[in-house]
Amino acid sequence: MLVKLSQSIWHCNACQQEFTVYYQSLAYAHSLMYARNNVLAHWYVFRDPAFEEHRAIIKRLLKDKVPEDKFGVWNDLTCGICCDLAPDQSVYRLDPYCPNHEYSQVQLLYYVESKQAQEFDLPEVTHQRWNGLSAAEKEQLVLAELRRWLPEL
Q1: Which of 3, 4, 81, 89 is deepest in the core (most CB within 10 A)?
Q2: pTM score, two decimals?
């Protein structure tokens, strides 16, 4: 899919480093997915069965463990687990990876002003591995990914 991307500056909460990545201002339900080493892909999440299954699993696993208004945060951090791995064998994410830490939370600081966005031809994420799993295997996969972020689960 051809998309126009601009740059943004992010901050890693673990190492305090700032880093630059591309971002996309897309229409509703279009997501730019990040893998390690600045590998990018596109995901149209609207009515995507894998996304919906993942979200339902998150709600089930986190019920009574975190406030309901935080489910979206954990969904966003872990939804890439239902996508096939990136070409570099990393898990896609909605937020970029810190260049120094695989599992640290990052936050957007600001968008770099640019009169001209760069155009990229991005692959679509796929869900072949996810689609081949049983419901119990999917739940175990999501739980394992959640535990990377919330070891107390």
Answers
A1: 81
A2: 0.87
